[in-house]
Description:
By secondary structure, the chain is α+β, with helices and mostly antiparallel strands. The protein has helices at residues 5-13, 33-36, 47-56, 60-70, 75-85, 88-92; strands spanning 25-26, 42-44, 96-101, 105-114, 117-128, 133-144, 147-161, 165-177, 182-185, 192-195, 198-209, 218-226, 230-237.
Amino acid sequence: MRIRTAAVATVAALAVAAPASIAFADTPADDSPAVSAVKKKPAQLTVKGYIKALKADKSPAAAKTLKAFKKLNDGKKQYAFVKLLQNRDVYEAVAGRTEGVLKNGTRTSTKQLNFPVKVTRSTVVTKDDKSGRRVVTFTVTERIYDIPVTSERISVRYTLKGKKKIADPSASTRITNTNKAITIRAPKTTPVRVKGTTVSGHSTIKATGTVESFGKGVTKKADSRIGLSSYSASIVTR
């Protein structure tokens, strides 16, 4: 999926630094009771606001991102980084597909969306003929200045009993998110289907802006399929 021209132009324009010391910029308040009763989203995410949000997040992923973000040591880079976090077109383009022969190993590819955004697609296949266990895990990761900010993963597994009997099929979806301009949610339970000798998992990933600047939400579909000798998987924007 190509990022629209507007998004590319936005990235180029980030060479001009803006003040980064202001925290979340709130939308103007309205004194009417009806409006005051509804908590408004901040207008945008700033460098100071991003650092504050990462510090409040006690997860190991947030700690790693915070450490790497501070090491940028460049106001322009930090400003560009935060602007990209809230760019909806960029997040929409973080997607991927894979397919192949069911053979043990890790396959990784990286695509440069635009500087400094990269998308890494990783497929891990494990196949144990002795136990009959098969597992395929597909992950799509967004990196800015080589710092991972979102990671979306779908995994499907089953055990082959005999030559064609499928046992213990299951699927799961996992999200790692240190992009504080959005929240990303996936179902706690990923539906799994068995059709003949094929096992598949399907889930819906939904991203919602925590700031007004991100715009409307984004929905992605995660799908993965394992057969007796091949697999396919995708995480794509719908």
